[in-house]
Amino acid sequence: MSSELRLVVILMFVYPALSLVLSILLLTFHTSFVNYELAHTSVPTGSTVAAVRHTLQIGLWARLVGVLIIAALYVWRALSVRDGKRGTYNRLIGICVVGVAYIFYLLVSAKYPPWVRVEQAIQGIALIALFIALTRKPVRSRFAKQ
After folding, report:
1. What is the mean pLDDT of each run of 10 residues along the chain (146 residues)?
2. Domain limits at 119?
């Protein structure tokens, strides 16, 4: 495997690794995380604090399951990079673009504690680095149309 492609594979593992670290932290501090979200969320009319807390807890667990699924998909995609298929390249570019847009959305709209925002910003930087590594000429040429 070329050094350029090795960099792509390494960067593909950085993002899910960061996601797993965040998941472990969220599992460890889930009560304080939900309390922070609750303190920054207005309780809708006709609802109770307990109901909103329950909804936030369900959202946290759903996020953690999503992280595990995405991490598995990243590993699967990383293993297929060596094949040099154009479709794999296009999917990776799409993952980078959608991932950065999603992280930007979370940074702007979500009511997360500052330490979560810092971790998400680092994830965004990792995705941007992956995008840059993917769009370099040696990598692009490996996935060129045939």
Report:
1. 84 88 90 91 89 91 85 80 83 90 89 90 94 92 79
2. 3-142
- Structural domains of the chain, count: 1
Asked whether the beta carbons of 83 and 63 are under 8 A apart, the reply is no
Alpha carbon distance 78, 92 (integer Å): 9
Which two structure tokens, joined as six digits, stand for 16?
């899910």
Sorted by sequence, the CB contacts under 8 Å of residue 119 that are 6+ apart come out as 18, 21, 22, 25
Q: If we measure between CA atoms, which residue out of 100, 110, 127 comes closest to residue 18?
A: 127
Cα dist. 128→28, 42, 51, 113 in Å?
28, 34, 38, 23
On whether the pTM is more than 0.90, the answer is: no
